[in-house]
Amino acid sequence: MTSADRYTAVDYWRGGGPIVKEAAQAALTGSDVDLANFLAVAEDLTFQDERVSAARVASMGGTELMTAARTALFETPDALWEFLYDGWEAPMEQDNRVRAAQIMDVGGPNVQGAARAALNGTPEDVLKFLREGQYKQREQDERVQVAQVMGSGGTNVQLAARLALSGSAADIREFLEVGQYVALAKDQEHATVAQLAQQAKEAGKLAAKETAAAKAESAKAVQASQLAKEAAQKAATEAEAARGDTAKAARAAGRAATAATQAAASAQTAIEASRAANTSARVAANAASQAAAAAAGASQAASKARNAAADAAVDANDAHAANLAAQSARTAADGATLAADAADQAAIAADEAGKAAHSAASAGANAQLAADAAVEASGYAGQSSAAGAEARAAAATARRHAAEANRAAAAAEALAAKAAKAAREAGVAARSAATHANNAATFAEEAAKDAGNAAKAAGRSTNHAKAATDAANVATAAVAKAQDIYKIAREVEAEELLGRTNAGIERARDDQAEANASTTAQAALEQAAKDRDTERNRLVSEAAKPGSDLSTIAASGRKLAVLVMQNGTAWGRAAAEEVLTGTDDDVIDYLRIGWATAKEGDDRSYVERLAEESETEEVRNAAEVALDGNAATVTEFIDNGQYKVAAQSMRVAIAQVIGDAGPVLKESGLAALNSDDPKKFSKFLTSAQFTARTQDERVRAAQLFDTGSPEVKSAARIALEDSPQSLHAFIVSGQYQAQRKDYLAATHVAQIQKMIADAAKVAATAQQNAATAQKVAATARKAAAEATEWAKKASDSSTKAKTYADEAAQHAKAAEASAASAAASARTARDAANSADVAASDAARSAADATLSSEMAQASASTAWHYADEAKQSAIDAGKDAEAARKAAIEAFTIAVQKEREEAEARRKAAVAAKEKAKNDPGARAREMYRCNQGYIPCDPEGSARWCQHNETYCDILAHSDEFAAAMKALLNATSVVIDLNSLEACMREKDFEHCRSFAVDALVGAKARALEKAYDKLKLLKRICTKCFPPGTKVLMGDGSRKDIEDVRPGDHVLATDPVSGQTVVSEVTRQILTEDDKNFNELTIATRAGPEKLTATYEHPFWSPSRQDWIEAGSLTPGTTLLSSDKSTVQVQENRSFTQRQTTYNLTVADIHTYYVLAGQTPILVHNSNGSCGIWQSQFDDLPKGKQGHVREMPDEQTMRAAFERWTAGAEKLPARGPKIPDVYRLEDGTVIQWRTASGSGGAAIDITPGSGGKPLKVHLP
Predict the structure, then answer these.
(1) Domain ends where: 1124, 1140, 1173?
(2) pLDDT in tens, 846-898
(3) What are phi and psi of 16, to 5 degrees?
């Protein structure tokens, strides 16, 4: 196998998923046969990784996306690739439209208007509505609601509304949910029937909204669990088929584990569906309570109207009062009818929620089956296999989540049925009360017309009194119904809390398991680093022994390099990647010299970071001094100096930590201080304090669990099962958020109890009035004994009414007190969260800063190793011996490192100055927190990291499409923190700096990102210089000082060449003339020379050396004022740059040794880069082809034309191994672009696949 084959394997390792990575690692540490076997199946393994990615994508989407993913998963690799590429877009857009429509259905007028406008617009409009528009418009709707409440409210309601309108969106929402009812209780004795009807109507709408959420979550859970089940069962089948092949069976078990994990996630979604169903049932019960109270109010109005009719029958002077009572009764009847309608709608919503919960139960069943399949697959992988253990663990997790999903679904379905029944019964009662009230109004109006008719007085009075008693009995029955419904609501709330607690505990256990695994992995990494050093020393000793088998040592060295590439530090990774593409001799040199050189580079990078990023000025200054020394000085500073110089600062920091700490943390901090050992100071601050803090916080959480209210108990129970970070978040702010929930729940309960007490008072008053009417009727009939009995009943009812009024007043006070406590807890939680946000934003910036620094170091290292490798190869090409080649490499490496250090020092000092300036800017923190709140930088790295662990797709799929993250953000309403976290990951992993732009808002991090982008651009240019060309007639400066047209320069001719980094100029041989027949895009440069302005034309991508920018700059990117290098070391400036398009033949040269040459602008030589391969003519020709149905696809009329294009595009390129029978021909161009011929594709017929070396989306050419 060649070095190119190894380079291909390294590329697969860099860009592959877990399955490809594992297989590539084994190949790179194995024999040539192992490497060949890997390259033969690499595309098949990539397909397996893509299956996992597609399943993850599906689990994050709606029903349309899941259906599309499921289809792709059971079709060809091409279909799957196209789905991951952009096939997800259309179903995603449809899912977005569905979500927007659902939001519109339950939204207010402004939300509805915005949703309608978005749905009539583009997919981007819908996305914008989901991402931000709906929330802004909901706030406007809520402000309107508050204004309406204020307009019709009493003094206290108006005051509370005015305060809410002057506050935040959260203040407005809290007023609508709680505050208005507290204020209403102060303004009036009890809510009117119309107010109760409106409350029931709002509750009905909310129940419908929660039902819609339950349906959506249920459908999503069922589809996702079905997909996970099928994937797990397929993996189990594949594992069984591969039982003789341990590695293959292990990979299948790994896929089964992933599917089981996805099944567990779908079970969690099912739990969310059950939770939404519970919420719908609870809200439906509230609507029923309000309808029942409205029924009591309408019955009282009926009773009053009947009383008035009875009075008017006896006394003509009461006719007016009878008319007024009739009007009140009709108004109450209208309100009761509205309340009944709302109760009916709430009942429908509860029924549908119950159905959604029932459906969600099937997700639990699917998760159980997925777990079974994972266990089966683990058996074929072997009991001792890591993949098998992973599958069994994932299965256990899936079963836990599935069990809770089944329990929650059953409970939600039962409670929804209860709530629906209660709501219907309340609706019936409200309609009955409305009928009584309307009838009573009619009789009262008739009584007013015929008032004082003595002949009919006794009979009519008796009839009206009896009807009043009937109405009062309806009111009393309605109150009893409200009390029954109150009990149902409490059941639902208890189940809701239980479900949330159980689900939270299961998630917490997952988080804790991940935290434990992370801790174990970190310890293993630290030990592995020590083991790698030991192994390297052993191999070096072996290599030094006479007669040692260097090939065997090199094989072990490759294994070591793979481990470094996987988990090493920046310079170590760069060196490992470079050596893995080399020969056995290169590996031995790496073990003897390169290893130590990389260690020195890593040490220096670490100290450079301290010099720039340390918060302590003394450390920064001492680090700069160490950087002026040699490698030993730097290492000594790392081992001892950094601790000594920071000792006093660390003492102060420890004192601050233990100032108000718990007993364990305080003891640990004091022990560190008393040791007087700076290294122990550092250990306490970086690790020991967190371990001690967790012990204290577990004790505090246990206390809160023992003594807390229900929500606090639940949150404490979950926190005790969760990771140390989550436990800390609970102690800092979570406990206050939970406490606020308890107070809000108490407020709600008190308000419902007040409403029921008010209704009971109303019913008792109705009974009192009815008894009084009966007394009047009895008196009219001259039934004295009966009148006395009715008088006593009236007195008893009056006493009950007073008792109920006192109860209502007590409940109102309790609601007010709970609401005030909730507000205080909210303030405490906000203050704690704000303090945490400050620390989190600092930590996030530090994390981003450190990541960028590490990547900068690796870019620098890769650049230096490249120069060394290039110098070595040039020496070998020139016929020099191995020792001379090695010396050339060391010299080139040293020069490159020195240059990188100078550039790094300039960047570092500029960054330190900028930080000092920012520190002295009083507005910096405010602006920073604003940006944090706007989501431009990640504000909660711990939470985000945990989220990302549960949603790895964000970290996997960014490579497939730039737009995916933004679209997923809208679909999931994920926080911007997650997007930024993954943007950083994509920025670093894919070197795609489009993802880094969000960090540019932070000036310091942005500056480093921009510097890193430049470093990677330079590295790509060095490693993969694409062929760039000049038109015929362009003059070339020859080695003897003569000039020759570029088309006349032949292999064997000699040209003048300069290394712009070292300044070395030599006469080098031309080894190849490169001809391109149809270049298209050109730039005409106007250059200010000593003889005046001169013209020079080049293809737009040809690199020119610019001393002012210290970089190779493409012709198309040269701007006026940019300097270029001439052969006498002088510089000239670009005056103008004109781009144009025309078809013509172009030429370039391949130059030995130093890969540059000079072309002439007039009589002035200008340094340009050479090429060692074919020009990338595919780009312009691809753009000119007819477009396919998708933007990345082009079409050719027939296979013969397509094959001819393939031959042109790959002429002179590096031939790579075949990727299976369907992909026999694979070539890599010098810019890293890979072009392959596919004999059969999903679109039908042959196809050309193109993976651009510059990054971006893969491209495809196929038949129409």
Answers:
(1) 1173
(2) 544 555 555 555 566 666 666 666 666 666 656 677 677 667 766 766 776 66
(3) -85, 165
